[in-house]
Amino acid sequence: MPTMETTQRSATELTGRSIIGFSSGNSGGATFRAFDPQTGKPCEPEFTSASVNEVNRAVELAVAAAPQWASSSREVRAEFLRAVAAGLEKIASTVIERAKLETGLPEGRFKSELARTCGQMRLFADVVQEGSWVSARIDRADPKRTLPKPDIRSMLIPLGPVAIFGASNFPLAFSVGGGDSVSAWAAGNPVIVKAHPAHPGTGELVGRVISDAVRSLGLPEGLFSLLFDSGIAVGQALVKHPDVKAVGFTGSLAGGRALMDLAAARPEPIPVFAEMGSINPVFILPRALQERGEHIVAGLYGSFTLGGGQFCTKPGVVFVPKTGASEELARKLGERVAEASPFTLLTAGIRTAFVHGRDERKSTGNLRITVGKNGDPDDGSYRVNPVVMETNAETFLANVELSEELFGPATLLVSHSNKAQVLEAASKLKGHLTATVHGTEEDFSEFADLISVLQTKVGRLVFNGYPTGVEVSHAMVHGGPYPATSDGRSTSVGTQAILRFCRPVCFQDCPNEFLPAELKDENPFRIWRMIDGEMTRDAVARPA
Amino acid sequence: MPTMETTQRSATELTGRSIIGFSSGNSGGATFRAFDPQTGKPCEPEFTSASVNEVNRAVELAVAAAPQWASSSREVRAEFLRAVAAGLEKIASTVIERAKLETGLPEGRFKSELARTCGQMRLFADVVQEGSWVSARIDRADPKRTLPKPDIRSMLIPLGPVAIFGASNFPLAFSVGGGDSVSAWAAGNPVIVKAHPAHPGTGELVGRVISDAVRSLGLPEGLFSLLFDSGIAVGQALVKHPDVKAVGFTGSLAGGRALMDLAAARPEPIPVFAEMGSINPVFILPRALQERGEHIVAGLYGSFTLGGGQFCTKPGVVFVPKTGASEELARKLGERVAEASPFTLLTAGIRTAFVHGRDERKSTGNLRITVGKNGDPDDGSYRVNPVVMETNAETFLANVELSEELFGPATLLVSHSNKAQVLEAASKLKGHLTATVHGTEEDFSEFADLISVLQTKVGRLVFNGYPTGVEVSHAMVHGGPYPATSDGRSTSVGTQAILRFCRPVCFQDCPNEFLPAELKDENPFRIWRMIDGEMTRDAVARPA
């Protein structure tokens, strides 16, 4: 085995090697490069795919790190998350430069994505430090009961090593140090990230910040590894590794489902939390359309083209009642699209899929397509023009492919002739991350049944707003029934994301001194606990 | 289609037909009978397997019932659960008679199981009525933030129709009206139960109580159906039905894994909560063994033979340090077993598996078996003698089949020569429902590392007690990593079981009047909610 190099380097110099605990990956694997979407040209340096041995080594280190991290104090966990946030801010300009190069997205986007990513780390640090997230419950003993009642105390504990797959469309917020990693660490799990191959340089920069934080705080080496791969072997090996206990993924339905199937077929199946996107239906109700159609057009255009339309929450279908106002809305949206400049997509593959999906839809009867004025740019870049499509509810219902995600700056207006028709369309929807309704109070009253149906289809219901822009907060649900996610009982954004990577354990008649601090009588951290069914921050009152 | 009969009959008269909403199942399917384990003779009446059409009809009714039940008030849900409990108590003697006949278990067992089952229903009624279980979270808007912050409010909502599989070993507490059904209803889901074929009469009696409660309270017909089957076709059809959204199961690893695999292979995979049993390791630490070995023997014997050893939590392996005291413990346990009367097992299949498993272990080298004095009773009954086996840690580690569940009155003593050996054995354990440690405070200090390892292997860690006897309370965790359950992140006993059958949804900028009551500003039920990260029962303070 060749000598492993240290990962400590200057912030700007990229090595192109995986980070395996405190060591660099070896040479010898298949190599790949990022591409500049503005030009289609490859970027320096070359990145080397990790080997199966390196996957095994990363998992071995994670297994070794797991007990220490699981029993780490809440201060230590919070300190680590804050150190990563501070480290990332320290090299912000370098990271942003690289992210721009690898994605074609603008500076402003990465300034806010970096702020959001660091804010997310600090929010989880706060949650961990406050401590009540462990959902501590105490049922006191009753030795006088006919069948003596034992003392039972439960709390959440970590699952063990978690494999995280970086997303193409959020190189910071949903990638190496993104929400999946942060929530897994916060819950007490070591993390192994499979970097997204479209932005490996950004991944390495973030990875080095994390690795440096692990080292400088004296934390166990296996708390973090970052693996590069030009293909799918590393990801498959991770998901199949018997010591990996959960998976986090953000990406396509095909990719997510493949990981779900792999995980379900293991001798020991493990949970996969895959966020796989959706078309996020929007319903514009009659009075709102009449009163503020023009305002809605502007918001809608901004939302479906934000980030080049490469958001999981992009509004991909918009239901409107067929009226003069809806024709006006369609016309206005068509105008905006026709005049727009092209948007740069993230990868050649995404561009190909977008162009293919768009052109395929052109052959649908009763579907009108308006595209930008300049045709597809033919300059080697990954740029495309935005697209707006129009059809009616009958056509939408008859063509299942119109319900599939078209990743990129496109949306579909669907006009319906009556309430029954829009209810039918809503009730036939599969799972989505979001649904949006634009309405007046009168509209919401009239369409209460529509809103009830939509609740059963999504993780988030937006009123008079736009689904893009996912607040990182305590109540956020960025999830939704399959196929929006693998498990609609979870969220990948917001503090409830921590609940994916832990499980309850209970202690029966455990002497106080051997209990975890969160469950001790005296409640040293003054966390919220449920004692005999009542929420309290008090200590346990000893039975008289 | 033949006319469907009503299910309203006298409490004692069994029809042998499925209950599909308010109708009785048709004749014509394959028939089967329960058997009396005391004699091995079939019991009246004949039961008829449901057809695929009847499965579809039950699901169709459940789909129709789902919206009304999901939006039912907490009072209505609580009233239903309490009505079922009261109805069950009203026919207690009939149910207990039939359960005794179909299981061979004694009267006292069913008195307590019925009390536990009804207590469980009332506990969930209380939880639902109190209302805080929905985990409401509110993040208030901040319109002044640079990027205006929306108002986000989340709570748990039901998943939709749930399929429940009754267990062989708890005809009341884990069956038609058992914990799985009750927690699914409490969360707001319709329930379709596949009855266990070993106690169909008990199932029908309980099912009719439930059906009567649904009808008399004017609840939607599809809230409950009960399907009989002599084979596996009904269960498979249920798990594969596109409108079934989750599965609850208690039974064997083979059965549970088959349902997991079916559910994972669906076009829309759904969660399966399968509790599949385990061997529930017990660790007797040196000082406790020395000080109170005799006391432990008595408790252990009672625990591994309780209910004929047919508990998911039966202590199936007991680790002891090899000393004079452990030899004494083995001798005493052997004496008890040798003198014991036989135990009646639940089914011919369980008896065959027990005898086979026992005899197979006889061929293991270095393993001593002590059985009851009378050999296997040969009277047509399902009775067997209890068994205690003894071996050493080396043999246990070298023979993987010794880690497999032997369902029935048997346990295995494993002696080890040092701490390293017992730590090795513990760290090689798969997932179990429970682990138990007997020790003095000094033992627990010395074996802190053992206790840490055990936490990662189980859902419940018992100190100086016995794993059988699962308290139904807020903090109970009756779960554990695979293969003890399909998803170690859940419990099938205690109020946290409700969390299996719901998912979070959030509302963004929803006008107060259109929010569910639990999320309205005024907090009409005064439930506990997290507002901007703080737990409170207060109303939302409107921003100044």
Radius of gyration of chain A from CA coordinates: 25 Å
Number of domains of chain A: 2
Task: Strand order, main sheet of chain A: write it out.
Answer: 2-1-11-10-9-12-13
* Straight-line N-to-C gap of chain A: 65 Å
What is the overall silhouette of chain A? globular
Q: CATH superfamily membership of the largest domain in chain A, which one?
A: Aldehyde Dehydrogenase, Chain A, domain 1
Structural class of chain A: alpha/beta
Largest interface: A-B, 81 and 81 residues
Summed over residues and divided by their number, the pLDDT of chain A gives a mean of 95
The quaternary organization reads as homodimer
Number of helices of chain A: 15
CATH architecture of the largest domain in chain A: 3-Layer(aba) Sandwich
Largest sheet, strands/sense/barrel of chain A: 7 strands, mixed
Helix content of chain A: 25-40%
**DSSP strand count of chain A:** 25
Properties at a glance:
homodimer, 544 residues, alpha/beta, Aldehyde Dehydrogenase, Chain A, domain 1, Aldehyde Dehydrogenase, Chain A, domain 2, 2 domains, seven-stranded mixed beta sheet, 15 helices, 25 strands, 36% helix, globular
Layout of SSEs?
The structure is a homodimer of 544-residue chains.
Chain A: E1 19-20, E2 23-24, E3 31-32, E4 35-36, E5 41-42, E6 47-48, H1 52-70, H2 74-90, H3 92-103, H4 107-130, E7 137-139, E8 152-158, E9 162-165, H5 179-186, E10 191-194, H6 200-216, E11 224-227, H7 233-240, E12 246-250, H8 253-264, E13 272-275, E14 282-284, H9 286-305, E15 317-321, H10 324-339, E16 343-344, H11 348-362, E17 368-371, E18 383-384, E19 387-392, H12 393-398, E20 410-416, H13 419-427, E21 434-438, H14 441-446, H15 448-455, E22 460-463, E23 502-508, E24 529-531, E25 534-536
Parallel strand pairs in A: 7-24, 9-10, 9-12, 10-11, 12-13, 14-15, 14-21, 15-20, 19-20, 21-22
Antiparallel strand pairs in A: 1-2, 1-11, 3-6, 4-5, 7-8, 8-23, 16-18, 17-19, 24-25
Helix pairs in contact in A: 1-7, 2-4, 2-6, 3-4, 3-6, 4-5, 9-10, 13-15
